[in-house]
Amino acid sequence: MPFYSNLQRRFWDKVQVCDHGWECQECCWPWVGAKTTKGYGNFYLRHFGKTTITVRSHRLAWELSHWCFLAEKEVICHRCDNPPCNQPAHLFPGTHAENTADMLRKKREARGPTHGAHTQPQAFYARAKLTPALVKELRFLASTGIFHPTDLADYYQTHADHIRNIVYGRSWKHIEYRLTVKWAPTDNLQGARRPKGIENAHAKLTEDQVMTIRTRHAAGETMAALGKEFGVGYTNISQIVHRHTWKHI
Ligand SMILES: [Zn+2]
Ligand SMILES: [Zn+2]
User: SS3 for the chain, per residue?
Assistant: First the structure.
């Protein structure tokens, strides 16, 4: 299975995938790492430099298999009613109200998994053809700052230049897709421990972000737009681009 990032590898290493393999949608895939008292998996997600965030594993399982981040209020429910399960086919998003209704319904109907077709997950490991949706997906992934063009190129079995052209908008220009990064899996994130990267104007950037800023500026993006996206001031960006700061990379 071609894991294309450390995050994916680190995450799925802690999931006990059944012997049927990644195609299986029947079995529960329990979390083998630390769990909450209610049995949900705890995953230590490192993001925005030194700030460590803990997320519930089933939320991240859903996010990683659907290529999108959940809004704060969105709840991920288990069809299988098994809190440690990370099988993407058993997870579906619902509001708090739906979650409660689902729980009550399950209690009434006794136990047993139900299989709704409308929330079947997309396989996250078997994409190939370049479609508008995939272009958006690539841009989204690149915009998170977690996935680099070289990671994506490895995963999609293509050249990094090809990926760069897509994510920086030099090709597929007619597909409009701009997304400001917002890291959202925050259901157990305390207010005081919110990651600083986005809101804080004096945020510390990572080396990778600095390189991304330089590359994208070279590709024609304005400093103002980059500053906005990375949550730092215009001056900061200018210093990075002109190598007054971050000279060592
Ligand atoms: Zn199985
Ligand atoms: Zn399950």
Answer: CCCCCHHHHHHHCCECCCCCCCCCCCCCCEECCCECCCCCEEEEEECCCCCEEEEEHHHHHHHHHHCCCCCCCCEEEECCCCCCECCHHHEEEECHHHHHHHHHHHHHHCCCCCCCHHHCCCCCCCCCCCCHHHHHHHHHHHHCCCCCHHHHHHHHCCCHHHHHHHHCCCCCCCCCCCCCCCCCCCCCCCHHHCCCCCCCCECCCCHHHHHHHHHHHHCCCCHHHHHHHHCECHHHHHHHHCCCCCCCC
